[in-house]
Amino acid sequence: MWFDTLRKKSKSRRKKGSKRAKKKGRKNRKSDKKQDACYHKVRSRYKKWPSAYASGALVQCRKKGAANWGNSKKK
User: How far apart, in whole angstroms, are the C-alpha atoms of residue 69 and residue 38?
Assistant: First the structure.
């Protein structure tokens, strides 16, 4: 059909290595440094981000380690 040819033409015009595509990939490089397991664990528990409570929880998680943070004590 005629719209298939239009679709093929529009795909061929796009360049995969264009400057615009490269800029989108580098969106948040600074924030990627600190996104460890604790960051994801704490971020999932707090609705409001960033907040004082969430920041404090992130610090505590990084002190204890992601594997140990948030576990209740078993008696």
Answer: 8
